[in-house]
């Protein structure tokens, strides 16, 4: 396979040579499950293969592209549990993308561990630096290997037929044989090397893109600079300096040096531009930090996690420090800790009164300290639900101070009484504790603070008990409000985020302080939104609000966060461990602004002088609705969802708009029979959007089924404000939110003010 062979082979690299030979390492699942496995890098330099010495022919594989990061040493709970048995320099952890479990490994020697760590990192780096063309070659090579059943480096027609099924193509045998014969230039009855590449190119010819290219090309062969400028102006609806942009695109994407000299773009260059990040639907400029980060904390939506320690459901799920590492690595800036008294004077974290497993509070604090600022330098809020005795609260305060050191915010920024919340910029590199506090912030500066070592606070300050839970409310009815003892040491760790009980907006407007944070269940927040939406938005101009899932969601499912963003709620806490619509919206919202976990709210939600009610967006100052027109043109290499060999996808595309109630909408294309490989629609969908500043757009591809529920194929979600107009590719994501290259949609987008 000369042409389609390994795109990643690095000649003479000792680490890779040793990985190609293979190594025996221990795979560790727990303190008692430690088994030897033979690990080997395949010849494609992309796939790692491993098998048990005893398990006969059964083996497992994973791709280097599935690995998100490698941690060296005892950097996982599993490896920490066997730290006394195996030294850190022989241990490493492979962390996979999405929600797949880690792979914890112990090598026979420190040198061998380093060889694998350096080798995999090198392959990951090379993969990262691959161009679009190399990625495609790599993908073709993968398909060839899958289809070449007898491993002879050639493909006969029967293998080609099987390949088409694997690739989601339903092609009649006559047409498939015609393509095969055209590609078989050596007339050997098999395809090899570049014959297979030719077959693939004929199979994947982009008639849809060619149609656009020829519409703007005067000679039908190339786009002159003038043609390209016309395309950018009329096709891509760009208003900026199209002359300079056209020059840049030719230099960046045109593979032919001759065309470059003529300031022209061939069809190959045009295809590469449209397949690149610049040609994608998400505006690359909004991927960087582009927003003003110097406004008060309450002016931002903050990426937030609920019951961060849980890896599964709320009743029997595993609690794990890994939950914190994963959330923080996804840009989450507010994590939750439920603390209870543990054995030997050490506080523990778990979902109280359930069968979920327990972890040590100090291990959680260590993980937060280690991972808080790896992805974003902006502040992390530790939202604490405290059920501990005063003695163990003191232990918690000691751990917070000793483990986090200067990262823990212990006083107002300038040491003086503050009049408003600081900004994410002011708080870079700081961890804030959100919990109950004895007295207020002012008392720390007025000299009136109580010097006693503990005090009492109302037990319903942190309204974490689910108001929906009727049985609880019945049980508590008629009882006096209980009090909770709070240690001064823990109270002193709370500065700008004091957890308080919420009465009503009128009371809050008169009495509440800027540093007080109220928590609502989703149903209570919905009630306020429905009854007093404008007051809710106004409240959130001045202080932080946290919303969390109902206690009835024992399966760790999520509510729709958009409802709460409509009210300006900043800390909308979701179960990060659960894939689906809720997390798709969250990922889409926080994909912008450098993925830093903070997104500036629209101006009409930050100005206390303005009124905005999500129920009546047309009544606000500066109301400017838009029309969003989406032509869904085609799909490329959609993944198979049904494992049955003969099954081919019948794809349809649904576009969903999330925003204020008036904007909630969804429309879909027709379904295309038996073609997940290159379906073509040319279907146009139109939407009116009344609050475009808040709107999110979700593209969902499903496999149509007339007898049962459609199967999910892929999705991509982004804010309307981050969409590029014109001809764009949408690179689809799996249910887990990980990329599934080269699956994509090709669309044309137009956004016009009404």
Automatic annotation (TrEMBL):
Residues 606-734 form the C2 domain. Residues 17-125 form the PH domain. It is found in: Cytoplasm; Endoplasmic reticulum; Membrane; Nucleus. Residues 135-170, 171-206 form the EF-hand domain. Residues 457-467 have a biased composition (Acidic residues). Residues 444-483 are annotated as: Disordered. GO terms for biological process: intracellular signal transduction; lipid catabolic process. SUPFAM superfamilies: C2 domain (Calcium/lipid-binding domain, CaLB) (SSF49562), EF-hand (SSF47473), PH domain-like (SSF50729), PLC-like phosphodiesterases (SSF51695). It is a peripheral membrane protein. GO terms for molecular function: calcium ion binding; phosphatidylinositol-4,5-bisphosphate phospholipase C activity. Gene3D superfamilies: C2 domain, EF-hand, Phosphatidylinositol (PI) phosphodiesterase, Pleckstrin-homology domain (PH domain)/Phosphotyrosine-binding domain (PTB). Its EC number is 3.1.4.11. Pfam families: C2, EF-hand_like, PH, PI-PLC-X, PI-PLC-Y. GO terms for cellular component: endoplasmic reticulum; nucleus; plasma membrane. Residues 473-483 have a biased composition (Basic residues). Keywords: Calcium, Cytoplasm, Endoplasmic reticulum, Hydrolase, Lipid degradation, Lipid metabolism, Membrane, Metal-binding, Nucleus, Repeat, Transducer. Its cofactor is Ca(2+). InterPro entries: C2_dom, C2_domain_sf, EF-hand-dom_pair, EF_Hand_1_Ca_BS, EF_hand_dom, PH-like_dom_sf, PH_domain, PI-PLC_fam. This is Phosphoinositide phospholipase C. It comes from Perca fluviatilis (European perch).
């Amino acid at each position: 396979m000369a042409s389609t062979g390994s795109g990643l082979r690095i000649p003479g690299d000792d680490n890779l040579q040793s990985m190609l030979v293979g190594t025996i390492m221990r795979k560790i699942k727990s303190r008692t499950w430690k088994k030897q496995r033979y690990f080997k890098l395949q010849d494609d330099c992309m796939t790692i293969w491993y098998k048990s010495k005893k398990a006969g022919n059964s083996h497992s594989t994973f791709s280097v592209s599935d690995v998100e990061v490698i941690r060296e040493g005892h950097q996982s709970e599993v490896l920490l549990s066997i730290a006394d048995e195996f030294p850190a320099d022989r241990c490493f952890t492979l962390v996979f993308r999405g929600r797949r479990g880690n792979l914890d490994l112990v090598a026979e020697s420190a040198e061998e561990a380093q060889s694998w760590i350096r080798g995999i990192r090198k392959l990951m780096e090379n993969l990262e630096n691959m161009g679009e063309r190399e990625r495609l070659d790599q993908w073709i090579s993968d398909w060839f290997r899958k289809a070449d059943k007898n491993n002879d480096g050639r493909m006969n027609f029967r293998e080609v037929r099987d390949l088409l099924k694997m690739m989601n193509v339903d092609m009649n045998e006559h047409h498939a044989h015609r393509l095969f014969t055209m590609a078989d230039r050596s007339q050997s009855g098999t395809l090899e090397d570049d014959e297979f590449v030719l077959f693939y190119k004929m199979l994947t010819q982009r008639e849809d893109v060619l149609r656009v290219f020829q519409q703007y090309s005067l000679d039908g062969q190339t786009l002159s600079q003038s043609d390209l400028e016309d395309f950018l102006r009329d096709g891509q609806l760009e208003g900026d300096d199209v002359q300079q942009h056209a020059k840049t695109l030719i230099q960046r994407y045109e593979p032919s040096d001759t065309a470059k000299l003529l300031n022209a773009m061939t069809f190959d260059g045009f295809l590469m531009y449209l397949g690149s990040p610049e040609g994608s639907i998400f505006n690359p400029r909004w991927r960087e930090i582009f927003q003003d980060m110097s406004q008060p904390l309450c002016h931002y939506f903050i990426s937030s996690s609920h019951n961060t320690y849980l890896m599964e459901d709320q009743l029997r799920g595993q609690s794990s420090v890994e939950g914190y590492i994963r959330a923080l690595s996804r840009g989450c800036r507010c994590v939750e800790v439920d603390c209870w008294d543990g054995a030997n004077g050490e506080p523990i974290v778990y979902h109280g009164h359930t069968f979920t497993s327990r972890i040590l509070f100090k291990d959680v604090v260590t993980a937060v300290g280690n991972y808080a600022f790896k992805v974003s330098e902006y502040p992390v809020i530790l939202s604490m639900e405290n059920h501990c005795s005063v003695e163990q609260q003191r232990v918690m305060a000691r751990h917070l101070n000793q483990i986090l050191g200067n990262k823990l915010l212990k006083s107002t920024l300038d040491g003086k009484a503050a009049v408003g919340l600081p900004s994410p910029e002011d708080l870079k590199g700081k961890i804030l504790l959100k919990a109950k506090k004895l007295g207020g912030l002012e008392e720390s500066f007025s000299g009136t603070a109580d010097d006693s070592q503990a005090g009492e606070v109302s037990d319903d300050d942190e309204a974490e008990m689910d108001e929906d839970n009727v049985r609880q409310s019945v049980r508590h009815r008629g009882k006096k409000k209980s009090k909770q003892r709070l240690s001064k040491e823990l109270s002193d760790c709370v500065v700008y985020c004091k957890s308080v009980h919420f009465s009503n907006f009128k009371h809050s407007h008169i009495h509440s302080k800027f540093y007080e944070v109220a928590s609502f269940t989703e149903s209570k927040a919905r009630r306020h939104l429905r009854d007093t939406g404008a007051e809710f938005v106004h409240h959130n101009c001045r202080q932080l609000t946290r919303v969390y899932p109902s206690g009835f969601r024992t399966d760790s499912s999520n509510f729709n966060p958009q409802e709460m963003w409509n009210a300006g709620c900043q800390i909308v806490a979701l179960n990060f461990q659960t894939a689906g619509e809720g997390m798709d919206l969250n990922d889409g919202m926080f994909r912008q602004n450098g993925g830093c976990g903070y997104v500036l709210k629209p101006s009409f939600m930050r100005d206390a002088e303005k009124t905005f009610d999500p129920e009546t967006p047309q009544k606000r100052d500066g109301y400017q609705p838009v029309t969003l027109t989406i032509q869904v043109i085609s799909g490329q290499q959609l993944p198979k969802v049904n494992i049955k060999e003969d099954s081919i996808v019948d794809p349809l595309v649904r576009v969903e708009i999330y925003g204020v109630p008036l904007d909630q909408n969804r429309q879909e294309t027709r379904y295309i029979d038996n073609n997940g490989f290159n379906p073509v629609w040319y279907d146009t969908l139109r939407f009116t959007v009344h609050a475009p500043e808040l709107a999110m757009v979700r593209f969902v591809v499903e496999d149509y089924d007339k007898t049962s529920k459609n199967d999910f194929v892929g999705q991509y979600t982004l804010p309307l404000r981050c969409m590029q107009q014109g001809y764009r590719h949408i690179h689809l994501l799996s249910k887990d939110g990980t990329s599934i290259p080269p699956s994509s949609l090709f669309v044309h987008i137009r956004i016009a003010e009404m």
